[in-house]
Amino acid sequence: MRGADTFTESLFTMRKLEDFVPADHPLRAIRKMANAALSKMNGLFAGMYEADVKGGRPSVAPEKLLRAMLLQVLYSVRSERQLMEQVQYNLLFRWFIGLSMDDSVWVPTVFTKNRERLIKHDAVIEFFNEVLAIAQQKAWLSGEHFSVDGTLIQAWAGHKSFVRRDDDDQANGDGGNFKGEKRSNDTHESKTDADARLYRKGGAASE
C-alpha cells in the first residue's frame, strides 16, 4: 500500500542531539580531545573576561566559539555567515559546538567580534598547543621530518628538443616533426636539458 505524503511534527521529542550522531563518527573523538584541551584553558578564559565581571550580557562561551571555529576549518566553511547558517539546521554541528535544538544561533557579526577577542588573547594558539600536548602524551607525533617540493619549473627545452631515447639518428637531428607520434618521458628525452620532463596540462602536452 502506498504511503501518504504527509508531515506531522511532534510537539515533544525524547531524543537527544547525541542520538543523531553515529557512534563511529570521527567528530566524536575530535570533540573529546578538544574538550580535554579546553578544560585546561579556564585560567586564560577567566582573564579574558575579567574586565566584564561587573555586568553586561554574557558573551558567547569561548569553548563553544573555539569548537565552532574548529568546525569551520574541518569542513572548509568559507565565512562566518555560512557557518551560522550551517549551525542553524545541522544537528551534527549543534551537537559538536554544544548547542541544544532550542538554542538560538549567534548573529554572524557577534560571532566575529567574539572571535577577534580570542585571537587578541592568543586563545587560538593556546588551544592548538594544548591539543598538540595531548597528542604528544599519547605518542601520536613523530620526530621525523621530510619535505616535498612539487613546484613545476620551466625547463630550458622546447618540444622540438625531445627525441626518442633509442634512436641515435634522431638524437643527432631535429625532433621538430613529432605530429602523430606518441611521446612520453619513458621513451623520449630532451637533447638540450636532460632534466626536462613532459607533462600534460589541459588538453596539450608541455615541458
What does this entry look like structurally?
By secondary structure, the chain is mainly alpha-helical. It folds into 2 domains: 17-137, no CATH class; 159-206, no CATH class. The chain is built from 8 helices and 4 strands. The strands form 2 sheets. A two-stranded antiparallel ribbon has the order 1-2. A hairpin with a 2-residue loop joins strand 3 (199-201) and strand 4. Helix 3 (62-74) packs across helix 6 and helix 4 crosses helix 6 (108-120). The mean pLDDT is 84.
Total number of β-strand segments?
Answer: 4
In terms of DSSP E residues, the strand content is 5-15%
Count of helical segments?
Answer: 8
| Percent helix range | 25-40%
Q: How are the strands ordered across the major sheet?
A: 1-2
Q: What's the domain count?
A: 2
What order do the helices and strands follow? HHHHHHHEHEEE
Q: What form results from the Cα inertia axes? A: elongated
* SS-derived structural category: mainly alpha
**Sheet of most strands:** 2 strands, antiparallel
Q: Kindly state the mean pLDDT as a whole number?
A: 84
Catalogue the unreliable spans. none
Terminal residue distance:
65 Å
Question: Which value, in Å, is the CA radius of gyration?
Answer: 29 Å
